[in-house]
Write a structure and sequence with these properties.
The protein is mostly beta strands. It has one helix spanning 103-107, and strands at 3-7, 10-13, 18-25, 33-39, 46-51, 58-60, 68-73, 78-83, 92-99, 113-114, 118-123.
Amino acid sequence: QVQLVESGGGLVQAGGSLRLSCAASGRTFSRYNVAWFRQAPGKEREFVAAISWSAPLTYYADSVKGRFTISRDNAKNTVYLQMNSLKPEDTAVYYCAADPSTIATMQRGDIDYWGQGTQVTVSS
């Protein structure tokens, strides 16, 4: 069982930065791949970024590549999403998700564990 708690969301002006954190409980978290998704009002949930448990390898949606950076600190059971050069279209609720399956499976949204989400609002 893994429990995930996101934090770090808020209101920021366009061009600004935020760092989201995803704190996890569970002894085996270090063996889970972790992803961030987001969902804007009236839109479907979309994949943002993912990080594998080993290597680690990182993956990004084209819309955030070069602006967002995902990282993890297994000693702290925490995954981070550094978001720079934020745009109004980045406004959404951001969710952390963890699963022992492959990144490809996670990108389809087939994930066992989800956090409650944190709101990110980017003003123009």
